[in-house]
Amino acid sequence: MTRNHLAQMAQKYMDYDMITLHTDVPEMPEGRIRLLHAMLSHQPSAVTHKDLLAVVTSLVQMGLDIHDQVDNETGASGGGMKGMRSRQLKVLAGDYFSGRFYHLLAQAGQIDMIRRMGEAICDLNRVKVLFYSKMKQMKLNAEEYLHHGSEIKSGLFLSFTHLMTGLYERVWPEMIERFTRCELLVQEIARAEKPSPSPRGWGVWHILQEGNEEDRRAIMDDRADPSSKAQLMSKYSVVEKLGDLLLQAISQLQQLIQRLPSDKLIKELQQLLEPFLSRLGPIPAAGIKEPG
After folding, report:
1. Per-residue pLDDT tens digits for 158-184
2. Domain spans of the chain?
3. CA–CA separation, 165 vs 172, rounded Å?
4. How far apart are the C-alpha atoms of 161 and 271, rounded to whole Å?
5. What DSSP state is assigned to residue 194?
6. CATH 1.10.260.40 corresponds to the domain 111-292
7. CA–CA separation, 235 vs 231, rounded Å?
8. Nearest residue to 171 (alpha-carbon basis) of 186, 184, 158
């Protein structure tokens, strides 16, 4: 199925004037949704409901992402009455998307899937509490940052493992984790290329782990000029190191894809890697297979 068709199916459940006019809706997790949809297309127990499952997963993930925006803004943006209203609308928007998810699955009689996705959401909330607690206490290293970030991005999608059989079931958890790791690394490269005063991504945790005392203080200074943080990112080769990690994750993901028994599916999944491969830029793609 084309990316446009999947987006159109989900979009008709997302269009709501109050949300679109007053809230910045996060991007649809298109890559993960297309990956899930492609895999479900080859599962006898799920193929009939693959479109529905792709749509509701989009709704739930976007609801979770909107609520994460609220968590990240609380105490950071302040904003008085205007900021409070913005946060309230984000909470309502997240709840609205979750409500559509329950309604659609209940209509289709997918009660077990409601339970499984609900359990996945609870597990995700526990992971987020641990993650944010470690960040607040400064008990986090760069690799843990990536690990927890990938857990948060992939957690909902793991609730579909039971619908897969044989080799598909065995490779799915690692495949979705590697895929979300690639997504996260692409985001971190963009963040490192244009650092802002306060957001703390992989580059910050890397410098806190590897840097001298002066640089560690400087990278944590929210009042510092972004250009000084850019210099630190360059000094510690953050973009290059992230590129190496992305190259490694793509290679691991391709190895998993090549194990699948369907040539058609392999070709379809290879196409999903193109945004990651294009982000490598001038970094030599040794060991990366060209899509077949």
Report:
1. 999 999 999 999 999 999 999 999 999
2. 1-109, 111-292
3. 10
4. 22
5. S
6. no
7. 6
8. 158
